[in-house]
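Exam revision sheet. Question 4 asks you to relate a sequence to its structure. Input first:
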Amino acid sequence: MLANIKSASLMRKPRFSHRTWRNKFASRLTAGTSPALSCKKKRALRLAEGGFNLVELNIAMGVAAVLSVAFLTIFTTFLVTATRTNDSIDMTAKSQILLRSLVEELRYGAGVRDTNSIDDPNLAGTTGEWTTSNADTVLITAVPAEDSSGAYIIDPDTGSPYYNEYVYYKEGSILYKRTLANASATGNTAKTSCGTETPTCPADRKLIETLDSMVFALYDQDDALTTVSTEARSIKIDLSLNKNSYGKALTFDNSIRITLRNVF
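Answer key, structure tokens:
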């Protein structure tokens, strides 16, 4: 009985671990000398050893590079498109804000003026006089002076409000707004501005940085064009904006017509 158990145990096949089988498989593949099987053996050996040769590595790197370039191109295109869309939206919004502010000024103000009646001490090299002109892109408006409570400051001699004046002018592609405060209006909250800020003079307000042109036309009571501001009963303002966004010129045009209250 013991002899049979012992002989049976000797006949059992030895157990091998996963690593033992892999090493044994690799050694059998390398032991052959058949040229026809050499490629298959080498590939099987690489699979068994878990590695890549130089050719495979170069191919993998090439595929990765192509995929990276494709992803970068898609991302760049998306970024450029998104930026151009945002620039277009920004130009639209700024033009609408500017036109709305002009509407409010002109509707409760004293209309458009040919020249400023309030001297501008910060207009260097001239007599301090602005002139409304399409050629120079200058537009002068008059708006009632207000105190700190928002009430109009009344001139006791005329019974009408004192008026401040606003000068819209263009330098390069930037549209500025200059304030000319009426010094006779006691408690006037407006302050005269200038091109460069100083301790006593605030800087002109920058409205739009992408202005290509601002053209206005005055119409009289018969809806005919006029060049005399005191005869004007309405004004049409055309804005044209232009901006270069990633090598592409973006343009936006906007216009509005406003009824005036010409009280001088």
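Marking note for examiners. The mean pLDDT is 82.
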